[in-house]
Amino acid sequence: MDSRVSELFGGCCRPGGGPAVGGTLKARGAGSTSGCGGPKGKKKNGRNRGGKANNPPYLPPEAEDGNIEYKLKLVNPSQYRFEHLVTQMKWRLQEGRGEAVYQIGVEDNGLLVGLAEEEMRASLKTLHRMAEKVGADITVLREREVDYDSDMPRKITEVLVRKVPDNQQFLDLRVAVLGNVDSGKSTLLGVLTQGELDNGRGRARLNLFRHLHEIQSGRTSSISFEILGFNSKGEVVNYSDSRTAEEICESSSKMITFIDLAGHHKYLHTTIFGLTSYCPDCALLLVSANTGIAGTTREHLGLALALKVPFFIVVSKIDLCAKTTVERTVRQLERVLKQPGCHKVPMLVTSEDDAVTAAQQFAQSPNVTPIFTLSSVSGESLDLLKVFLNILPPLTNSKEQEELMQQLTEFQVDEIYTVPEVGTVVGGTLSSGICREGDQLVVGPTDDGCFLELRVCSIQRNRSACRVLRAGQAATLALGDFDRALLRKGMVMVSPEMNPTICSVFEAEIVLLFHATTFRRGFQVTVHVGNVRQTAVVEKIHAKDKLRTGEKAVVRFRFLKHPEYLKVGAKLLFREGVTKGIGHVTDVQAITAGEAQANMGF
């Protein structure tokens, strides 16, 4: 990552700092199909592929992997051809973990030929039969006319195919919600998940708060989770239609789990823990239209960049401002996003067509940053955000998940509860492998460096019973009568075959993002590595005596309290007051339980 991201952490950022990286992307009207259906990882050049200026218009060639399929036409296929098409659809759905996008009227090389109305109707009918065969539904995302050496109007149609995966393994995307205090984060989530607009005084957020002081102050201080579902037809499923979270899960093919994080600087450690521990797929950065980039907004933006979490921006409270004020806030965001430390290409979303394009480009290019402007009181442009979330594909492909599932089980312990008649319950994310009811695992390290045996009694995802948990999924595991006092946040539950190692001393290659003076040996910082959060002291800075803002080095840290389970290559973030830095673990000095007891004074 560019070390100039430190500008986002240390004081003010110059409004005109740095050259612009590209322009603001806008997908206007039916003439633009930029980003529609391209293979993952390929950059779009932004030219108008569907307009008359480019004849013939092209999309990128069809990719063999991924969940996007091009079809010129599907008119009256033979039975053999139909079965082949169904098999092909199953493959695309598997690649998209239950979702696929079909471009009808497009050749395999990406040429936008288009179809006459009768042929398009027949092709969509065949596509519907194919979807029924695999237990899926189809939704037409958009249609557009193309010019291709024909006097008759010809169209291409973009279709979303979605099914409910087997064994209740619905598609689940985790979205961390960031932004300054009083920007309207909890209010927006309340409107999305409850299905009712806010009254302008925060009524929509009341159901999200977990503590009395949060209700009294109106400010989030803890991490809470809210869910928004979409069924196989792309319709919203929330608490307005269903009374319980279990009913939402049963009715949904796709779930968006919002991780509501604190905006006040006082709770920054909680926000960092939410970003590092809960492994969000992407982040939503909320900015109030009437205040612009203020408070912790810049710092939250820097955290997302430092941890390489893709993010999109929502400008809220546009009902309180004049149009010129909203435009000024958007321009301010565009300037910051284009700075050298960010290297983002802002994309303003103003129509449903823009929202579809933004979702596809956001998944294909890490540099594209969609910007929405909306109101939680009037509901203006709220539907555009829902379209974006509905279309947003998984940001990790099926091959990556399959590779993780082949590894041994590793579950991060992020939360610990005691539930009446159930016993001890832990919440967290399965980093690798597969976890089933009845599995025997070991949990640790304890304060004396040991791992303890336990049994998984039951599993729940989004408060709904689940028998099998797969890599990358978040869940709660019931552990029966296991002593809660032996557990703490930052532990891991792993397969006994893994023979896990622990460490008190580790080395990391870091970039010092911001420090007021010089960073030296003996300095104490709070280290975040995944779900691990503990104070560590700097024992040695290799090849240097001290560090200043923006400099890199390999640093040796020692945990002060108890040993931890770390893996080489894990992302690291450390902080102490205004001091912040990032990096990755390069070496861990494994120790035994006996050595851990000796080091920690047991």
TrEMBL record:
Q: What SUPFAM superfamilies does the record tag this protein with?
A: EF-Tu/eEF-1alpha/eIF2-gamma C-terminal domain, P-loop containing nucleoside triphosphate hydrolases, Translation proteins
- Record InterPro entries: EF-Tu_GTPase (IPR050055), GTPBP1-like (IPR035531), P-loop_NTPase (IPR027417), T_Tr_GTP-bd_dom (IPR000795), Transl_B-barrel_sf (IPR009000), Transl_elong_EF1A/Init_IF2_C (IPR009001)
**Any Pfam family hit:** GTP_EFTU
Biased composition regions of type Basic residues, renumbered to the chain: 40-50
Q: Where is this region: Disordered?
A: 24-64
Similarity comment text for this entry: Belongs to the TRAFAC class translation factor GTPase superfamily. Classic translation factor GTPase family. EF-Tu/EF-1A subfamily.
What name goes with this protein? Answer: GTP-binding protein 2
Identify the species of origin: Papio anubis (Olive baboon)
The record lists the lineage as:
Eukaryota, Metazoa, Chordata, Craniata, Vertebrata
Record gene name: GTPBP2
